[in-house]
Amino acid sequence: MRALAAGLVLALLPGAAHAAKPKAPAALTLKISDNGNPYMPVVVKNATLNTRIALSYDQGLLLNPSAVARAGVKPFPIIGKFSLNNTPFASGKTVIRFTISTAAPQGLAGRKVPMAWLETPTAADADAILPVGSLAADRIDFVRGETPAGSQTYIIPKKGKGEAMIRTRIGGEEVNISLELNIPTTVMSARAGEALIQAGLASRIAEIGYWRPFPAVSLPMQGLAGKPGLTIAGLPMRRMSVRVSESEARAIDARAKGTSTEEDDEDTITVSADRTRKKRGRDPWILIGRDVLDDCSRISFDRPGERWVLTCKFS
Fold it and tell me: What confidence category does residue 217 fall into, taking pLDDT thresholds of 50, 70 and 90?
């Protein structure tokens, strides 16, 4: 998977044609809930959907099947449905449906966005998932509460215009980084983990856990111990794990059993180039989770400044 599992689904969709944009408000403030995620109501056709706001990808709305039925959303005729084999879902196969329609977050102008849904839910805690880049505001502030004394400001440039991702170099690899409030710990692809290991910044430990980007998906992860004082994009690393294949997981723990498939599992490939210098596997990525972000009282998506601004107190 790429920097966000949700982004994998939406990356397959055609780009949305945006209507003329009304002037965006200067700022939008969203409260981070007790479970670590921000939410807001979003109107889609006939329904107001409880929607989780994701920090880790740019555009598109992921819908649960029940929300699709309530809203009356229909896929594009003929081209709006396709199947994928060797997916990390338990059946190994999934059907994706998609369209482009208007999503109107509460208090903001509606926008036409790509919408996609699977046959199983993509969120257990909401009707839908909408990324921060789809919110029509110059700055979106995600706030947790009062700012503790001694907090510091961390300014992190974004990867490019209009993107939510961050880009950094680790050893010889260019790595895509995303902030992700929906995961308890920091997870990464095998290529990103190998870059840290080769740079002498981390080492693998004999511990297997699971990353669950969707309710029906369970991807095996191996624990990664960072060198004391390790930071990535200026943020301290705490609890990290790296993608491994099912067979690699079972070699460490015979009881290990996830839902990933060997044939499609590009994020477990550690080799970045073959003899012809062509890249193998997906671009390396890291999702920085709540083990880091829970210590940030404010996380701001600064669209005009093309940056993230975090106010955090790390103990």
Answer: confident
Using CB atoms within 10 Å of the CB of residue 162, give its burial: 0 to 12 exposed, 13 to 18 middle, 19+ buried: exposed
Nearest-angstrom CA–CA distance, 244 and 270: 10
- As assigned by CATH, the class of the 152-312 domain is mainly beta
Q: Across the strands, what pairs with 153?
A: 311
Q: Which residue has the higher pLDDT, 261 or 79?
A: 79
Determine contact, residues 239/186, Cβ cutoff 8 Å. yes
Distance of CA 93 to the CA centre of its chain: 21
Name the most confidently modeled range: 87-101, 156-170, 266-280: 156-170
The C-alpha atoms of residue 222 and residue 179 are separated, in whole angstroms, by 20
8 A C-beta contact, residue 166 and residue 93: no
> What is the location of CATH 2.40.70.10 in the chain?
34-137
Cα separations in angstroms, 24 against 21, 54, 165, 298: 8, 19, 21, 21
CATH superfamily of 34-137: Acid Proteases (2.40.70.10)
Per residue in 121-168, pLDDT (tens digit) is: 999 999 999 999 999 999 999 999 899 999 999 999 999 887 899 999
